[in-house]
Amino acid sequence: LAGSVALIVAARSDWTTAYIAVSFFGLFAVITGLVMGEPARGQEPKPLKGPVAAAIAYVSPLAEFFKRQGALVVLLFVLVHKIGDTLANLTLRLLFEDLGFTNDELAIYDVGLGFWALLAGIFVGGVLYARLGMKRSVLISLVLMAVSNLAFAGLATVGHSTWAMAGAMGFENFASGIGGVC
Q1: Mean pLDDT across 162-180
Q2: Which domain holds residue 126?
Q3: Mind listing the pLDDT tens digit for each residue in 101-128?
Q4: Is residue 7 part of a domain?
Q5: By CB count within 10 A, which of 13, 29, 57, 129 is most buried?
Q6: What is the tally of structural domains in the chain?
Q7: What is the 3-class SS of the chain, one letter each residue?
């Protein structure tokens, strides 16, 4: 909601006004935190004693991970798995700008529709993971995420089309929701 409001206000005014308007969304969280207070802890965390203990607490889980068989393969998989999506998402705004989409269109189709598609993808990802297990569900999510990148190639070919943008953004966020869970 905050992202959509920012785009809509910026289209009608300027970015300073948009950021001021969006800051009110954070105000609700601050007030809630102040009213609710800190939740009770089941067990108090152990205080760290000095910089050496802090460094050990930081490095120990990483060292334990790299001792496991196949740790480098897992790390390489995660990097390769996410790099395409990350690079595509970095250039997404440039594509929308080149195709002449307005802030209102971005607010509706990218942020608005994209949010609900992401939630649907998270739900479907949970179901896939529960029914198919990790390997199969991750494979499905990889295929869906690759196809979602191709949807933007289709959008670039079609040009300025709100239907194509809605389809590409909806599918991208749906696939990302599944991929995030799996």
Answers
A1: 92
A2: 72-181
A3: 988 888 888 888 889 999 999 999 999 9
A4: no
A5: 129
A6: 1
A7: CHHHHHHHHHHHCCHHHHHHHHHHHHHHHHHHHHHHCCCCCCCCCCCCCHHHHHHHHHHHHHHHHHHCCCHHHHHHHHHHHHHHHHHHHHHHHHHHHHCCCCHHHHHHHHHHHHHHHHHHHHHHHHHHHHHHHHHHHHHHHHHHHHHHHHHHHHHHHHCCCHHHHHHHHHHHHHHHHHHHHC
Per-residue pLDDT tens for 72-86?
A: 888 888 777 777 777
Looking at this protein, which amino acid is placed at residue 172?
E
Sign of CA dihedral 87, 93, 99, 105: positive
Nearest-angstrom CA–CA distance, 89 and 98: 15
Rounded Cα distance, 6 and 25, in Å: 11
Tokens describing residue 111: 């942020």
Alpha carbon separation from 3 to 45, 91, 108 (Å, rounded) = 36, 18, 10
| Cα distance between residue 116 and residue 124, in whole Å | 12
In a domain, 174, yes or no: yes
Predicted pLDDT at 170: 93
Question: Residue holding tokens 């953004």?
Answer: 169
